[in-house]
Amino acid sequence: MTSVEKSASAGDDAHIVKSVARTLEILEFFDEVRQPQNVISVSVALGYPQSSTSALLRSMVAMGYLKFDRAQRTYMPTDRVPLLGSWLNPTLFAEASLLRLLRAIVERSGQLVLLGARNGDHAQYIQVMDPNHAVDHHIRLGTKRPLATSGVGKALLSAHDDNEVKRIFHRINAYREEGEEAIRIPELLASLGEVRRKGYFVSIDQVVSGSGLIAMLMPSECTDRPLAIGIGAPTSTILAREEELVQIMREEMKRFFGEYMHDPKEPKAANRNAFGGLKPVTSSQTTAEKRAYTSIWKEEHTA
């Protein structure tokens, strides 16, 4: 039996306005099902009262975000929805490159593929593709996972230096609920070091028994915040196909975003801005980063 997982994009934060959360979750629901829906199907899927669901849908029609088919009595998003964010990060979204990347990984792997970003102290799934129902539990768009104990969370944390990770988890440990186990920071740092060395993280039976996930960071040069791609599959599939799945992710990232990727042994890209110029040296940079910057500057300015 398939287990359904409630989205954590709303409901776990006392400061979220319920009507706002429900409006956005309706849009996320349509992004997931990708077909017209009536009031009852939306109400049942999201667990909202039918009366308030109907009122929200009518309001979204009035504002131009949904259209209503009177004959079928169904709703569907309009083109105003994708246009809302079309100006953001053209590197990722030009010609639908990011979505095409995710679809390519789905097609080659035959497994669930998701995109995650940090949201506070959690990793949040901001895109989920599972057309083949590769896992036996439903992962809803907007689902949140703890940063320190999830595959996507570990991949996202690996983009931060150890001092920043320490600050994050000293705070999380200090404010954890009574009875909640503290994160062991030295063990976490050792794990993140391994993620940085290998370039990916494998999670086995950590969140759902019998399921695993391989998570890998998107190239930092083409995003304005760390993003991670994950392949989710039964544990047996992850164990048997780890190298193959990692290779698929790397090859597809290179195909779609190769111009933004660089050899890990070559520090140049990390010291350049979006236009290819050198970033200025700052006091927050590590000694290694400053040395790399100096080396590049001398190479480019010495006859």
User: Radius of gyration over alpha carbons?
Assistant: 21 Å
What oligomerization state is this entry in?
A: single chain
Major β-sheet strand ordering: 7-5-4-10-9-8
Sheet bearing the most strands, described? 6 strands, antiparallel
- Report the CATH superfamily of the largest domain: GAF domain
Strand content: 15-25%
Number of helices: 11
Tally of domains: 3
What does this protein look like?
This protein is of the alpha+beta class and 303 residues long. The protein contains 11 helices and 10 strands. The protein has a 6-stranded antiparallel β-sheet with strand order 7-5-4-10-9-8, with helices on both faces. It has a two-stranded parallel ribbon with strand order 1-6. Strand 8 and strand 9 form a beta hairpin. The longest helix is centred in the last third of the chain and has 23 residues, at 235-257. It starts with a strand and ends with a helix.
Please render the helix and strand layout as text.
Elements: E1 3-4, H1 18-33, H2 39-46, H3 50-62, E2 66-69, E3 74-77, H4 80-84, H5 90-93, H6 97-109, E4 112-119, E5 122-129, E6 137-138, E7 144-146, H7 151-157, H8 162-174, H9 185-198, E8 201-204, E9 211-217, E10 227-234, H10 235-257, H11 287-301
Parallel strand pairs: 1-6
Antiparallel strand pairs: 2-3, 4-5, 4-10, 5-7, 8-9, 9-10
